[in-house]
Amino acid sequence: MARRIALVEDEKAIRENYAASLRKQGYDVLCYESKDQALKAFETRLPDLAILDIGLGAEPEGGFELCRFLRAQSSTLPIIFLTALDSEFDTISGLRLGADDYLTKDISLAQVLVRVSALFRRIDALKSNLDQEQDLIEVGKLQLDASRFVASWDEHPIEITLTEFWILHALVKRPGHVKNRDQLMEAAKAVVDDSTVTSHIKRLRKKFVALEPEFDRIETVYGMGYRWKA
What we know:
This protein is elongated. Helix 4 (about 90-95) links the parallel strand 4 and strand 5. The chain is about 45% helix and about 20% strand. The protein has 2 domains: about 5-130, Response regulator (Rossmann fold), CATH 3.40.50.2300; about 135-230, Winged helix-like DNA-binding domain superfamily/Winged helix DNA-binding domain (Arc Repressor Mutant, subunit A). The chain has helices at about 10-25, 35-45, 60-75, 90-95, 110-130, 160-175, 180-185, 195-210; strands at about 5-10, 30, 50, 80-85, 100-105, 135-140, 140-145, 150-155, 155-160, 220, 225-230. It starts with a strand and ends with a strand. By secondary structure, it is of the alpha/beta class. This is Proteobacterial dedicated sortase system response regulator.
């Protein structure tokens, strides 16, 4: 069965170009031009992946609202923001809401297809490799459950996305060992740039600090990457 992709974009030309390219790759693409139209469809059935424009008509943050809804329904559904906006604020805002990737509209169609394919490969790899992973990892106050993709700190649950889970998983599997950005991207089965990895790390730190203000276990090793302090 073809993978179902929801494409939410209010500009007709862009929507049709991306839909045509995705369909040529064998995807089942459902297009929506407004937040309300997409939301109504999502309430009936979730897609396998969502590509969301941020500004939708008169709603400058319509895509963010859709992301919140989708992430509340599923922690593992891949979400990509496709937008004309290109600033650190917008990138971090999108990632903070739980998106997996963030693409500007000047990116080539070929690159969009690569990102979509990579996210689907990640989901497939996670499913096929799940039995090979240690289901439960406990490091100090941290507990990761790879069978359910959940994390907790000192018995308090942490709201965590799938990308964040596998970045964290890669760090804590070998405490004290440095993981560079490429290794963290590989662990998350994601194709993202350096700034996106940095944003995910920042988000993870904030979630731990919210539970324990003195948290300092995720350490930046300048020029090399990150590690979970042993």
